[in-house]
Design a protein that fits this description.
Elements (H helix, E strand, L loop, with lengths): L1 H23 L12 H15 L2 H14 L32 H14 L6 H15 L19 H6 L8 H9 L5 H8 L6 E3 H10 L5 H8 L12 E3 L11 H7 L6 H5 L7 H9 L1 H15 L21
Antiparallel strand pairs: 1-2
């Protein structure tokens, strides 16, 4: 009984943070201080995605990995220094996160037109939205006004990001600790309709798991052998429509063609099966729920007011 009371209290605290964060952000935050901020970010993102479609997924993932570690504060962008152990080399991020150069380009452009106004955390949030739109997915109105952290947490990055080897119950727990429902977990997982994963992240699934389509597994083995030399070889998370943001990811799960263990767990005889089935049939509902979940994620513990700072260089503290 005591553990249930503690869990309920933790959930209330998380929900309070969501409400406080949302209340302090606004969609028109830069209207007067940097009116070209959003168009500048959008132009740079579209250019990057046209050049390399995978970059859309990379920028979306940057925002996710930022927000899940101590809130949406751009801590994920900080390089290591003598006094800061950054998050880039944490296990879920090292040799995996990318797109930092695109954020650098956007920040440089914004600093030239409105110095020390637009935060790196807001750039991440807007770039994630614009990436989804550029890949054919839904749009949403991004709430703005986040400020940037003056520190990072290597340890939190190693413990607060869900792993691809988690079972459904652990995924539900991970997301619930951030205030997300099972429906929001499934909707956010739909981001895997685009992007790629390294062989080392799915090798065990294609060689040892049984709830995988045999022809699908075989098709992946030539590029992902048992040799560690293939660890960094890439395969698409959604082999049906590799670069388009759609609901094919969920259709793949129905056919046991989820690339990652954690993907297929969403359709494995558990409580989220019906959600996956519904999204596989109704792309518009998926788009709507994904947009709502992204808005909620973007409100995770933002720094506002006099907290934090507006970095002039996203890689380092002022």
């Amino acid at each position: 009984m005591a553990s249930r009371s503690i869990s309920f209290f933790v959930l209330l605290v998380v929900l309070l943070y969501f409400k406080m964060g949302s209340a302090l952000l606004s969609s028109d935050y830069y209207n007067s201080t940097c009116p070209k901020a959003l168009s500048t970010i959008r132009t740079a993102v579209v250019k990057a995605v046209v050049k390399e479609h995978r970059m859309g997924a990379s920028l979306l993932r940057l925002h996710f990995h930022d927000c899940f570690v101590n809130g949406c504060d751009a801590s994920v962008l900080l390089d290591d220094t003598s006094s800061i152990k950054g998050e880039k080399t944490a296990a879920p991020n090292v040799d995996s996160l990318r797109g930092f150069d695109i954020i650098d380009t956007i920040k440089s452009q914004l600093e030239s037109i409105c110095p020390e106004v637009v935060s790196c955390a807001d750039i991440l949030a807007v770039a994630a939205r614009d990436s989804v739109v550029a890949l054919g997915g839904p749009s949403w109105t991004v709430e703005l006004g986040r400020r940037d952290s003056t520190n990072a947490s290597f340890s939190a990055a190693n413990t607060e990001l869900p792993s691809s080897i988690l079972d459904l119950s652990d995924l539900i727990t991970f997301f619930s600790l951030k205030g997300f429902t099972e429906k929001e977990l499934v909707a956010l997982s739909g981001a895997h309709t685009t992007g790629q994963a390294r062989c080392v992240m799915f090798r065990n699934r294609i060689y040892n798991e049984t709830n995988i389509d045999s022809s699908f597994a075989t098709s992946l083995k030539s590029n992902c052998t048992s040799s560690t030399a293939d660890d960094d070889n890439l395969s698409s998370l959604d082999t049906t429509s590799k670069v388009v943001f759609d609901n094919a990811y969920f259709k793949n799960l129905l056919n046991n063609k989820g690339l990652l263990h954690s993907d297929q767990q969403l359709f494995s005889g558990g409580s989220t099966d019906s959600l996956v089935t519904n999204y596989s049939k109704n792309s518009e509902e998926f788009y709507e729920d994904f947009a709502k979940a992204m808005l909620k994620m973007g409100s995770l513990s933002p720094l506002t007011g006099s907290n934090g700072q507006i970095r002039s260089d996203c890689r380092k503290v002022n």
